[in-house]
Amino acid sequence: MEIDAQRRRGKFWDAIEGRAPMPPAAALLGWELVAIDPDQGTIEVAFEAGEQFLNPVGVVQGGFLAAMLDDTLGPALVATLPEDQFAPTLDLHVQFLRPARPGRIVGHGRIVQRGRDVCYLAGELIGPDGKTVAVATATALIQTVRSG
Amino acid sequence: MEIDAQRRRGKFWDAIEGRAPMPPAAALLGWELVAIDPDQGTIEVAFEAGEQFLNPVGVVQGGFLAAMLDDTLGPALVATLPEDQFAPTLDLHVQFLRPARPGRIVGHGRIVQRGRDVCYLAGELIGPDGKTVAVATATALIQTVRSG
């Protein structure tokens, strides 16, 4: 996780380094940074899938796995952006491989291809038992904040 | 919402009719049934997108919209199943059309095609201002619970 201070700026790094609170959605998911390599465009994060995410059959509702994947793939890109850019997700495709039990879920995200504007992202979630529970791809669009 | 009592059985209807608690994931999303037509395979539900779902730029994190869509499309099918069947989602594709502000979000779900096992589902979410914020398609597989 060797990233020089110049690149550790903006909302993402402010939250990671404690200069700003964690965004509510990330806090709700128990989001935690495990490892990051902005040069490779890869990230490893972890989530805490609590009882509140369970569906009627007692496994994590697929939608919350989708939320975790969104918060895995997005940060792989966002961590590499300068302070005046952000990158909304245009679409997200999730395949649910097997039921996910509650507990610690690890997310691996990566930039598949980075264009000037359009970026293709991919990743997967590993359940508490070490098995892959879901995979996803996403498209994101880099946008620059225009200051008035 | 004219559905005879014989069809109002199983986990889905137990939660709707207060015979069982709402599943945690649905409760967390503020899930509420607005209207349902199992013969048409359509459902209208509503969610309460609270502050806890917001991302760093103050709009609902896309992943939680995905969670809401999963909990819109799934119930369109689940409401039509007999008590001994359930239908896990195999995949979910979400397109994010515009940012969603916090507030009441309405979901419309429908069965596009129902096979003996495989079902194709679609739907969309309408934000507090009446504009469509996200659309989705999903594939679900009907499974029968085998009693030992």
TrEMBL record, chains A, B:
Keywords: Hydrolase. CDD domains: PaaI_thioesterase. GO terms for molecular function: fatty acyl-CoA hydrolase activity. SUPFAM superfamilies: Thioesterase/thiol ester dehydrase-isomerase. It holds the Pfam family 4HBT. Residues 58-133 form the Thioesterase domain. InterPro entries: ACOT13, HotDog_dom_sf, PAAI_dom, Thioestr_dom. The keyword GTP-binding does not apply. NCBIfam families: unchar_dom_1. PANTHER family: ACYL-COENZYME A THIOESTERASE 13, THIOESTERASE SUPERFAMILY MEMBER-RELATED. Belongs to the thioesterase PaaI family. This is PaaI family thioesterase.
